Amino acid sequence: MADNNYNPNGVDDDDEALRIAIALSLGQDPTIATSNAPVDLTGPEDDDECHVVEPTVNAKTRMAAPSNTSAPAGSSYIPAPSQPAVSSSYSLLTGLDRKKMEEERLARAGKKRKADDQLGSAGEGGKAGRPHQRVKTESPAAAAAATTAATSATSATNPQTKSGISTEKSGNGELPFPHGVVKRTWCNGQPRTGDDIKIEEILQKDKLELAVLSSFQWNEEWLLGKVDIERTKMVLIAFARDERQRQEMQNNVPRSRIRFCFPPMLAMGNMHSKLQLLKFEEYLRVVVPTGNLMSYDWGETGVMENMVFIIDLPKFESAEQRDAQTLTPFAEELLYFLRMQTLDEKLISSLRNYDFSETSRYGFVHSMAGSHSSSDAWKRTGYCGLGRAVTALGLQSNDPLQLDYVCASIGAVKHGLLRALYYACQGDSGLKEYESRATGGKGKDITKADDDTDVLNQNIRVYFPSLETVNRSKYGKMSGGTICFESRWWNAPTFPQQVLRDCRSTRSGVLMHSKVLFATRPSADDSSAFAYVGSANLSESAWGRLTMDRSTRAPKMTCRNWECGVLVKAGSPGEHGSGSSNTSSSLSMFEGVVPVPMELPGLPLAKEGARAPWFLQDNF
After folding, report:
1. CA 20 to 30 Å from 577, out of 104, 149, 411, 612?
2. Would the pTM of this model clear 0.90, i.e. be above it?
3. What is the assigned CATH class of domain 122-165+176-317?
4. In this UniProt entry, which residues are annotated as the site Interaction with DNA (predicted)?
5. Quick check: is 272 catalytic?
6. Per the annotation, does 112 bind a ligand?
């Protein structure tokens, strides 16, 4: 039944709904307010990151689970907290005296490494003037159990443990991924087929010198177990709700080893981008994952999978080579994005020491929190930036498209957003949807609008799990705590229900936190197809909205979230794993280039019942 209080243009009381969901997930009476300080879970109406419960399972639920929700054969038993852990508004590295811990550790080692002159001040400027992001930390018990299982499970349960990582000679030595690669994250209990990768294989802690990391959610203890803090300096691009919390975060870490960058934020929105810049002796690794820095997002609990783009860029041997480099569009947008996040300028400039030429076949797509009204700014970000990247790769066309979009969260979507994304994937600047919307109120032909909606419904498929799929996953509904959608949005008369399909992973019992969009043209050859892999879910918060600036009467792009992703052409060469193919004929052009993680064709979701979408709040 539709929510009679649904407000398609306003901000509803998400606070109360999420408070009730938290109470139910903890077995508490939702009508009784707790005595603790309230967790600030306020968000915009189409907030696509309504995280409440970690994807873990308590012992009672695990024991009572039916056979179709039990762990796959060969997977390790993973202890978990007796209660599902609730999302915290308290941010990264607070409440733990990291400074003291790491200084003691360094003292015991009897050495301190020389400060890296690239680190600088690490962009500690930038305003964070809103209290609404929920930065969740994973429970230590769950992380420790997951790490233990991860270190022992692979060799014991999977005789085939090839990582698919090889090295290739480049100008300055051997690079594992000189041409770029897209892989699925490793998942505990699943066979390794060559198209997956572990976070340890990405970070290479024994070689890593500097790591610039960003994430929406963090588990600091788990992360510091993956990095050698004595060897590696870190810059963390993170959210803090105010100056006091910034100072607390900075004071809790050894400043010679860990620095922070706090991107500017709107009053509502999320620092949702996931980006890793990893400096090794001879090369820079650029990593764009769909998952956060949490153990379960990297497969260690065996319940969740993600995807990740990786490319290794060799270091120039001389200043002359550096100065002669013409940056690719990928590099230009990456540096622009980092600069807008207020990362230290010296660090950004140091990226020019690396050869970006191999990124010419890729596009870097981003959304930047804020309103962007200059002609240069609005065209570069949100879905306008997506269209710009499509055109830069020579993939623009007015031919009909088929879009297959896997996402982990969905906002209060209307056909207008689908239309904007569809046009952007054709290479449009954003003006086509903007101008049609601007004239719609002045007698736009209704029949034409209806025909356009029919085209969208027939050519766009959005993959999101059903209640049945979540219940049949490895640990049932306790695995679905970071997969977010609300029944009030689904039941809104403006929501395009026809486009949703059940998202089932080709890995049995595993749920997906991946964000990947496949774009194909049935009338063209396979080389015109491409995929987006990144952090953006299906919402206006993620992709933005182009409107008219009231003062200048010019277009203005407004995004609530920070997001980033990569466009990959179907014909891109690379070191892509040759894992077992589960690709249907409609997406076969991506085989060996971008893994297709979902079963095809996806079944349409039902309006209600087991085949209805998974609604997080309705199930806790």
Report:
1. 149
2. no
3. alpha beta
4. 539
5. yes
6. no
